[in-house]
TrEMBL record:
Signal peptide, first to last residue: none
Source species of the chain: Actinomadura monticuli
Record protein name field: Translation initiation factor IF-3
A matching Pfam family: IF3_N
Primary localization: cytoplasm
Keywords: Cytoplasm, Initiation factor, Protein biosynthesis
Every Translation initiation factor 3 C-terminal domain range: 84-167
Domain Translation initiation factor 3 N-terminal: 7-76
SUBUNIT field: Monomer.
Function comment: IF-3 binds to the 30S ribosomal subunit and shifts the equilibrium between 70S ribosomes and their 50S and 30S subunits in favor of the free subunits, thus enhancing the availability of 30S subunits on which protein synthesis initiation begins.
GO molecular function, one term: translation initiation factor activity
UniProt-listed Gene3D superfamilies: Translation initiation factor 3 (IF-3), C-terminal domain, Translation initiation factor 3 (IF-3), N-terminal domain
Length: 182
């Protein structure tokens, strides 16, 4: 069964509860009379509630209805939040200047509203010292805590230690107004 509502001659019930083009209740009418009213007013008979007893049908311009519902769906998709995860890779023995550079990238990603996956790669003997990586991740989280929060705590994954930092939610215009008036 398709998701499209049945229209005009596809409605196969003896009678329907008819709703007029402006939303007024016409009442329960035989399907032949409903189709005749639709033809007279140059509109379509659209079944809006097929599970009701009797089914509810409305007189409307079906093409216009489909176009408006497609526009609403498109608008809803446009307003959806797109989460992007950026990744930064570090080593446990990172130079202070290199650390500042990588921290700058994390800050830039968080300001743009993206999540950041921070990966520390261990090699050789470094694998026996995971606390070095843990301290480095904690330091990074503390340095960027005004822009983001730790979404998933640092955890060891084979040769890597991974932590995810998410941006703080942006304040809405209403939220900012409430703060200024308080």
């Amino acid at each position: 069964m398709s998701a499209e509502p049945r229209i005009n001659d596809r409605i196969r019930v003896p009678e329907v509860r008819l709703v007029g083009p402006n939303g007024e209740q016409v009442g329960i009418v035989p399907i032949a009379k409903a189709l005749e009213l639709a033809r007279e007013s140059d509109l379509d008979l659209v079944e809006v509630a097929p599970t009701a007893r009797p089914p509810v049908a409305k007189l409307m311009d079906y093409g216009k209805f489909k176009y408006e519902s497609a526009m609403k769906a498109r608008e809803a998709r446009k307003n959806q939040a797109h989460t992007v995860i950026k990744e930064i890779k570090l080593r446990p023995k990172i130079d202070p200047h290199d650390y500042e550079t990588k921290k700058g990238h994390v800050v830039r990603f968080l300001k743009a509203g993206d999540k950041v996956k921070v990966t520390i790669m261990f090699r050789g003997r470094e694998q026996s010292r995971p606390e070095l990586g843990y301290r480095l991740l904690q330091r990074l989280a503390d340095d960027v805590e005004e822009l983001g929060f730790v979404e998933s705590r640092p955890k060891q994954d084979g040769r890597n230690m991974i932590m995810v930092i998410g941006p703080h939610k942006k304040k809405t215009a209403r939220g900012q107004e409430a703060e200024t008036t308080a």
